[in-house]
TrEMBL record:
Keywords from the named record: Amino-acid biosynthesis, ATP-binding, Cytoplasm, Glycosyltransferase, Histidine biosynthesis, Nucleotide-binding, Transferase
UniProt superkingdom: Bacteria
Enzyme class: transferase
Domain ATP phosphoribosyltransferase catalytic stretches: 65-224
Family: Belongs to the ATP phosphoribosyltransferase family. Short subfamily.
Protein name: ATP phosphoribosyltransferase
Annotated HAMAP family: HisG_Short (MF_01018)
Keyword Amino-acid biosynthesis: yes
Known EC number: 2.4.2.17
């Protein structure tokens, strides 16, 4: 990087791109951006735009699916982004390298848990060494969790509405994100085991961190200070 000094002003003027999912992560990221002196006037809920400008003409937001955020950042289509530990854990098993995860932002907190239909004796099934069918979007997390416990499982990959699987006999258990537990209760499911606590992390493209340091650092610093 021998052109660093000469190109400093170019770097300072370069557009930075941040990848975010709409919904809870977007909502909880707004105060962090405010702490960095940046505001966003359009909401992804009401706007159909997938690229949103910010009050900083050199920062734009990409609105993508939560599970796609690591992909945009790893390939450098976004310089940085925010993703849940649940999503990151799965992603890194499949696509290791290229992502730097410097800050736990402590937002969008929840947990990954095992849940079963009310009345299903999970402890007894585990004790008996039964082979369990587990439906989940988090196949790597689930496989690792049950392997550690020495429980035999058949994992069934789903892309959403996991809560339905035990109700219609597709699975004995699910591994899913739980926050208030309201969705489980509404579907007569009960959490029986915690798998991991989840919060969202700032993720940064490794090349961008090296080549756009002076643009990224003020934002990263502000996020770090604002994250409690
Ligand atoms: O919705 P979509 O299919 O596009 O993707 P997604 O569900 O992965 O994205 P999104 O925006 O819903 O969640 C983004 C991130 O927020 C997740 O990756 C988690 O890290 C985090 N998070 C925090 C949650 C929740 N809380 C949460 N409650 N993600 C999902 N949920 C679900 C939960 O599974 C349940 O279906 O929200 C529903 C309500 O939860 P309860 O327990 O409060 O009823
Ligand atoms: Mg969702």
């Amino acid at each position: 990087m021998n052109d660093c000094v000469g190109n400093m002003s170019n770097e300072d003027n370069e557009m930075l791109t941040m990848a975010l999912s709409k919904g809870r992560i977007f909502e909880e990221t707004m105060p962090l951006l405010e702490a960095a002196g940046i505001s966003v006037s359009e909401s992804p809920e009401s706007s159909r735009k997938l690229i949103l400008p910010t009050s900083d003409p050199r920062l734009r937001l990409l609105i993508v699916r939560a599970s796609d955020v690591p992909t945009y950042v790893q390939y450098g289509a976004a310089d940085f982004g925010i993703a849940g530990r649940d999503v990151l854990y799965e992603y890194v098993q499949e696509q290791p390298g290229g992502l730097y995860q410097p800050i736990d932002l402590n937002i969008a907190k929840c947990r990954l848990a095992v849940a079963v239909r009310e009345g299903f004796d999970y402890e007894e099934a585990v004790k008996k060494g039964a082979r369990l069918r587990v439906a989940t979007k988090y196949v790597n997390v689930a496989r690792e969790h049950f392997a550690k416990k020495g429980v035999y499982v058949d994992i069934i990959k789903l892309y959403g509405s996991m809560e339905l699987a035990p109700l219609v006999g597709l699975a004995d258990a699910i591994v899913d994100v739980v926050s208030t537990g309201g969705t489980l209760r509404a579907n007569n499911l009960v959490p029986v085991e915690d798998v991991m606590p989840v919060s969202s992390r700032l993720i940064v493209n490794q090349a961008a961190l090296k080549t756009r340091t002076s643009r990224l650092m003020p934002i990263l610093d502000a996020f770090q200070k604002a994250a409690v």
